[in-house]
Each structure stands twice: as C-alpha cells, then as structure tokens.
Amino acid sequence: MFVSTLLSLSLLVMPSSFTIEKNKKTPIEVVQFNGVTIELKQELFQHVLVEDSVYLHNFPLGNESEVKLILTKFEAFTQGAEVVKASMNFEGKAVHRALPRPNISFFKGAIEGDPSSRVFLAVGEHTTNGIIESNGNTYVVAKNADAGWTTVYNLSNVDPDKMNWADFVCGVAETPQPRSAFKGRGQLRGAGCNALQVAIDTDHEFTSELFDGNTAASSEYAASLVAAMSTIFITNVDVQVHVSFLRLWESANDPWSAETTGEQLPQFREYWETEMEATPRHLAHLFSGRHLGGGIAYVGAVCSSYGYAVSGSLNGSFPLPLEDYSHNNWDIIVVAHETGHNCGTWHTHNYIPAIDNCGNDDCAGALGATIMSYCHLCSGGLSNIVLDFDPRVQTTIENYLGGEISCSLACDASLVGVCCIGESCNESTISECENTGGIFLGSGTSCETASCNPQVGACCTGVAGDCEELLISDCSNIGGIFIGYLTQCEDGYCDADAANACCIDEGCDDLTAEDCVSLGGTWAGIGSSCITGGCEPLENDFCDTAQVVTEGVWNFTTIGATTDDDPFDNETCPSEFLGGVNSDVWFTYNACEEGSLLVSTCGLVNFDTDIVVYEGTCTNMVQVDCNGDGDSCSGYTSELILNVYEGESYLIRVGGFSENSSGSGQLLISGLQCQPDVPCIGDVTGDGSVGVNDLLAIVNHWGEDALVYDVDESGSVDNPDLLLVISNWGSCQ
C-alpha cells in the first residue's frame, strides 16, 4: 500500500507542527457512522516535551470539516509516581514488580478560532483515544485495537441503539465522618497549581479481558482515563488530576471477589486501609474490567479514610459503534462521575431545586445534561451527556475542595498524614513520622478526623449494673473490664442478669453468673460469649502454637490462658516493673529486614501487661528484651523497641503482672516496611526448603511472566530459574 493511502504526518516549518490527512480507504463499519480513519503514531510525538506546543493541521472532524488543533503536551503522573505489576505470593501478600511508565503522550488544547472548544488526545504505543468538543458536538477519537485503525467521528451521527450503550448505574455511599469536621482549614488550596493525587488500582480482568494481558496497553489506558478526567476538572474547577500510583494485576488471584459495586467498594476500602495506607494519595480508585454494573463512591471523602471509588464494567476504549461490541461504555464519564462524588457532590437530581430530573423519571431536557446527571438512563443513553459539571455542581466542588478538606492540593505536594507518638497526634510525612519513632496512620489522614487515642466503649466497674463508657486505658486504670470499642452501657453488658459464657464440661451456654455456678459450670467472665469462643481453649496459649503476626494491630485475649513455666529474666529490665508474665499467650514474628521493631500493648489492653521477647525456637529460646510498664503507658501497659535482623524469628510472650491480671485488647507490631518474599532463593512454594515441589512449580509455569516463579526476575519462567532452584537445593538457612 502506498504511503499516500495512509495517514500522512508531514513535518512543516516547525518541528512540532504536523499535517493530518484522512486515509483514502475507510472500513465499511466506519462509513456507516460518517467517520473517517487516521493514524497517529506515538513515536512522532516523543521528541515533544511537556508544556511544549503542537499544531495539528487539517485534523478531520469526521467527514464534516477539517480544523487546526492547537495543543500542549501535559503530564498525567506525579513526579514520584510508581507503576507496578502485582501478583500474590504463597502467603497471600501482594508482591510488586516495578514497570516503566506507559509510553504515551497526552495533549490538551482547543480548535484554532474556537476558544470555547476543548480537545484531549492520548497517543500511545498501543492505544489512541481523544475527545474534541465544539459548537455542541462531541467528536470521538478511538482506536480499534483488533483492526488497528483509528477513527474520528461525531457522536451525534450514531444511532444510540446501534451504539448499544451499557447500563450504567451509580451508587453513592456517604462517609461516616461529619462534614463539619473538615471545616476551618483556609490554607488548603495551593496558591498556583492545584492537583488531586489519585492512586489507581485495577483488577486482573482490567488487563486480561480488556487488553489480552498486555500491561503496557492497560497502563496506557488507565493513565488516559485520568488524563482525560484532568482536562475536565481543570476546565471546570481549576484542579488537575494526577496519578500517584498505578497497579496492574498479572495473576487472577487479585484481592477482589465482590460481584457488585456495592460489595466491592467496602472491600476495596478495607484492603487499602490495611495494606496500602502508606501509598501517597488524596483518593484511591479501582478500575474494573468486571461487569459490576457501574460505579460507586463515597461522597465528600478527599483526604479521608473513605477516599475511595470503584468504576466497573469498563470498556477499555473510548466508544466505538461496532456490531461485535456487546456494550459500549463512556469510561471517562463513569470515572469522572465517581470522582465527582468523592469531591463532595451528589447527583444533579438531588439538588434543590433539581438541576435536572432524569433521576426522577423525567427525561425532559436530557440531551446536553452534565456528568453528575442520570440522563444516560433516558433515550440516547450516554450520548446525552456533555463532559462538564453543571455550574452549580462546579460551585459545590470548589467550595468543598477549597474549605472542607484536610490536606494541600498543591501540585506534587508531599502528602502528610497522622503520626501518633504515644497519644500525641501530629501531621507529617511517613518518613518524618518514622524518623521520630511514630506510628503513621496513612497519607491524607488528619488529626481533626482521626485520633491517636483508642475509642471509648462500655466498661464494667465491678459492681453489678455499674457501667461507664470510657477509653480502654481509663477503664483499666480503675480496675474495670473493657467490653469493646463502640459498645454501649445501655446494651446491658454489666447488668447482674447479663448472660455470659458458662463452660460446663466440654460445652458452653450463655448464662448469668449465678445460674452458671448452680449448674457446676465455670463462668468465663463479663463480656464473654459462646459465639465468640468464650469456652474454647486459646489457640496461642503455648509457645508451640504461637500465632504468626506481621506488622499491624492484632486482637487477642489472655482470659482462660494458663501460665507457662518458660524462663524469663527480670534483671534485663529491672526498672520496668516486670511481673510474673501470668496467663500468657504467644506470638511469632519473622523479621523481613534489619531494623527497629515496636512491640506494644500501650493503652491497647484492659489489664496490667508484661511483654517478653525471645530469639530462637520454643525448645531453644534466648531472651532479648522485656518490658513491664512502658513510659507514659496508662494502666501499667507495656511497650518495647528492639533491634531485629532479617530472616530471624522472634517469639513474643504477653502475660499479666499478677495472677489476677488477664484481659483482652490489641497487640501492635510496627516499624518495618518491606515487601513479602519467599524465605530463600528458589523456594517458590514457601515451605522452607528448595526441592521437588519448587521444581514442579517452575515447570508448571514455564514460559509465563509470573513474578513468584520467575526466580531471576528476567520476565519469563525459563531455564535460568530451573538452574537456580537446582543450585539452591536443600533446606533454607
């Protein structure tokens, strides 16, 4: 085929000026909606620097006209953004491999002579997408990945029925925090450039189903959605949107198992609050290739522990009206809609008076509705929507971002969060917090909305019916029994006739103390119940059955535990008031790197604790540290910091000071931040030795780009991995 039959990009006078020509041959499916095909190649734009100008002459708006586009190249990522490929290891922990940023160029601008127009183009190695808005028309630029051509067409030229719009349903979930808690922070907006930093997670289907497993293509498209959304936000509310983190899943065992958006949002939030709290972000957004039915987001949640959204049923391309596409989705509308909720706005039909009534089954005026409307449910589908926020919605978002959030929006700002030093709350970066020995609660958290003090709950103070709602530490100080966080006295936990676990022979019944004794049973105590295992023996009562712990907060109880006769040396902590380590329970921790480890019950339990830490095994242990009463720890609770070494196992023993000291609470393990990995080279199954099972696992994943089994991290499971397994044969040391 002659070059003249293809797109011609001819260099004109200036290096950043190009002429675009329509292809002379147009596929029949494109002709049907009066579109044209062109070809935009990423390599032609690679020399263009961010903020440089590009002029595209004779750019076709379908078959209607040709225009000159005046564009500027812009960046979609923060300076320190990470792009990673993830899989789960044998422990069920995410393992990340760094990926290069996607090879894609983003441009924004306008049509020459039409200052009210708006243009967005994303030209990548694998994907090309764009939007041109002018005189009430929306022109779509989209690439058919299977056929290889890129089309430009007027969306209004396509019959909505032939477009076969997907049913997009939005769910919203209001954040539990009172909105008033965010007010009074006038310095929050940057004086110049402002940007939301959004961490993007995906599911396996986003890459495997939409892009045939090609992470280069899926990363291009994920970045394109955020870049396109950024052009909408900067035009409407003067705030850009940048990617601060992007994760793509190479294996099917991602953390997401929900079947609807309503189930997926809380699962997404719980995982990120637990596993990803240190990832810098104002918001986190899950891009899903599964058919979840639409999107969902928490409303008014920027820089809070509810700053999450889910966009499901994504299409993987800007819309193409092809018969073999089962459904089309305007992905950018879905993503921008849910982000709008995060930024404080509800749907347009929720405003008083309503901006439109499409969500109230009145489709009058549906054409030309805005992003936060439900007018996509009317005849015309998503083609009814213009890519803007209504002026009243703009005001709502501007007021929210300008006065009701707890962090700075200055572009590439180092995001701060709550740093707890004891019960003192400060706001700092994660590195600053760790350098001062604090506990970092996550980027975007605020002392106004998060506390370093435990929450209150019901405290039984010893006399039947006598109950106060106190902090766990205050309850312990008066010798009370703490029932649990957020429990209330009005629920009767401390009443004389309250039923608690009664252990009779090998059975359990919830009875009053009097009834339990009359039946010859053993009453487990206030706050216990059969359903929560009040009569079951504690699994970690002995060293041999120690509970495995990693960094985090772990619930535990010593009620019902026996007192072990394992030795401890009080002389190593003579001034710390170490008692008898009574009714003790055991934990085991494996250090993933060398450093300082915090082990603490400080203010987290309802009894006087002792902590002893040993190196070695249950049959050959050596005490390395201990603590009875931690400095500034209320209720005679304990805390210690010890030096640990990579690969070493540590036994943590927690008991009570006296024979009567037992209770419940939480154990905090903190200080090390390292990626989970196999215990030694070649042990891909994680069983502590390199052997036949590892050899078979390598063979079963031969030729795959599977991080867990790619021992030499070459990008493929092959002969060198096999040789590494053989050369490391035997038990891990």
CATH architecture identity of the largest domain: 3-Layer(aba) Sandwich
CATH topology of the largest domain: Collagenase (Catalytic Domain)
Lateral arrangement of strands in the main beta sheet: 1-2-4-5-8-9-10-11-12-3
Beta-strand residue fraction: 25-35%
Look at the structure and give the CATH class of the largest domain.
Alpha Beta
First CA to last CA: what distance?
Answer: 63 Å
Q: What is the percent of helical residues? A: 10-25%
Low-confidence runs of at least 5 consecutive residues: 1-13, 174-191, 675-679
Structure description:
This protein is α+β, with helices and mostly antiparallel strands. The protein is built from twelve helices and 38 strands. The strands form eight sheets. A ten-stranded mixed sheet has the order 1-2-4-5-8-9-10-11-12-3, covered by helices on one side. A hairpin with a 2-residue loop joins β10 and β11. The chain is globular and about 90 Å long. The N and C termini lie far apart (63 Å). The N terminus is likely disordered.
